[in-house]
Amino acid sequence: MRKRKLVIDYLDFASADEMEPLDQELVAAAIDAIKGSYSPYSHFRVGAALRLEDGTIVKGSNQENNAYPAGLCAERTAMFWAGANYPDKAFDSIAIVGSDENGICDNPATPCGECRQVMAEYQTKGGRPLKVILVGAKKIQKFSCVDDILPFIFDSLKSGEVF
Ligand code: THU
Q1: Which of 39, 62, 120, 159 could form a disulfide with 74 if both were Cys (CB 3.0 to 4.6 A apart)?
Q2: Are 97 and 30 in contact (CB under 8 A)?
Q3: In the structure, what pLDDT confidence band is assigned to residue 159 with cuts at 50, 70 and 90?
Q4: Active-site residue 121, yes or no?
Q5: Considering the entire predicted model, what is its pTM?
Q6: Of 18, 20, 25, 75, catalytic
Q7: Which residue segments constitute the domains of the chain, with CATH numbers given?
Q8: Percent of the chain with pLDDT strictly greater than 90
């Protein structure tokens, strides 16, 4: 038996101004995507912006339904749309932001487990790390791949390989 430790490195920014221009643009797109949120039940609005390998930005927002489980998170709305419309383009990075009645939440938006699993699959499909940017009003966190927000990913296609 050996005791092991898992260490995750990530970048912490006080605001988008500290980020590189492409990431600033993605954060702005995620914030803009909030406009499309349909969230009459939770009143929690989420925006996501996904950059593809060619620079194209795809936006998504949470879409709720009276039959609650039928709704979909912002991240998956963006990823599934991109997967359907740009099937040959790898995903480069995704930014996510949450907003409540007071505006953009202070703490970074944290994707649900299902969205992390879907990110993991598209990362494998694309064959390159998918960077994840979690946006809050008071801080922004950037992770260099999905593995860092989903340790010990289930991925029968990848068989344990880590980026
Ligand atoms: N939501 C997202 O859009 N992304 C997440 O990762 C977590 C939750 C949405 C789902 C629902 O419409 C609302 O936030 C409240 O849970």
Answers
A1: 62
A2: yes
A3: low
A4: no
A5: 0.95
A6: 75
A7: 11-148 (3.40.140.10)
A8: 92
For residue 163, give the nearest of 112, 58, 90 by alpha carbon.
90
Q: Phi and psi at residue 117, in whole multiples of 5°?
A: -65, -40
Task: Say whether 102 sits in a helix, a strand or coil.
Answer: coil
pLDDT digits (tens, 9 = 90+) for 23-47: 999 999 999 999 999 999 999 999 9
CA–CA separation, 12 vs 92, rounded Å? 19
For 139-161, letters b (16+ CB in 10 Å) and e give ebbbbbbbbbbbeebebeeeeee
Written as six digits, the tokens of 51 are 């950059």
Please indicate whether residue 112, judged by its CB atom, sits closer than 6 Å to ligand 1. yes
* pLDDT-above-70 percentage for the chain: 95
